[in-house]
Write a structure and sequence with these properties.
Layout lengths: L4 H15 L12 E5 L19 E7 L2 E7 L6 E4 L2 E8 L5 E2 L8 E7 L4 H4 L5 E6 L4 E6 L10 E8 L2 E10 H6 L6 E8 L3
Antiparallel strand pairs: 1-3, 2-3, 2-12, 4-5, 5-6, 5-7, 7-8, 8-9, 9-11, 10-11, 11-12
Length: 195
């Protein structure tokens, strides 16, 4: 049986961030978010064009679609938890970052990135989810889904402090569980926890 720890940890981060959100309906000025998929790109910045974030940034490419969120640590928690880089970044339909787990989130990227040598350390291989509510898609890279002949999950990881890059194979979960086409789609990730 494969460990579900990273996915559970990512979900816990999203739940905790929602519960601790307080009144943060207005994100800090300058946070940005972008989605490039079947939907048009969106983004936000302050009047001077300053990105003004404290360095939390995630870019996930799945096939030909790219999902991107830049936010502050007040809205997108991100930390080193055990050997994992764990976080959850979200944006609303206009591209403005919102509290992770917010009911207005149109795009949310959750992640539990394992150490590069996770197999040698004997820890679970981590997971990444991209929940694109605008397109009605939920992409998941998690080895737990590899129960049949579909190979998905994080494949390679490289770290530079709190900056993780790598490759992964994703599956669209609505199709996977709903009897639709089960395809593993190659992707990449570039995630920074800066704040």
């Amino acid at each position: 049986m494969k460990a579900l720890f990273p996915m559970s940890l990512v979900l816990a981060v999203a739940i905790v961030s929602t519960a601790c959100s307080g009144d943060e309906s207005t994100p800090p000025s300058g946070d940005t978010a972008e989605t490039t998929s079947s939907a048009p790109s969106t983004g936000a910045s302050n009047a001077d064009g300053d990105t003004g974030t404290d360095g939390n940034h995630a870019v996930v490419t799945i096939g030909e679609s790219t999902y991107e969120v830049s936010t502050s640590s007040a809205l997108g928690p991100c930390s080193e938890t055990g050997p994992y880089l764990v976080g959850s970044f979200a944006a609303d339909a206009s591209g403005t970052p919102v509290q992770a787990g917010d009911g207005n989130a149109a795009l949310q990227i959750n992640f539990g990135i394992p150490p590069a040598d996770w197999a040698a350390q004997g820890v679970a291989p981590g997971s990444i989810t991209v929940d694109d509510r605008t397109a009605g898609e939920n992409w998941l890279a998690a080895e737990e889904l590899g129960a049949d002949d579909l190979v998905v999950g994080i494949e390679t990881v490289s770290f530079d402090g709190k900056h993780a890059t790598g490759t992964a194979r994703f599956v669209e979960t609505f199709a996977y569980y709903g009897g639709g086409e089960r395809l593993a789609v190659a992707g990449t990730f570039d995630i920074t926890c800066g704040g």
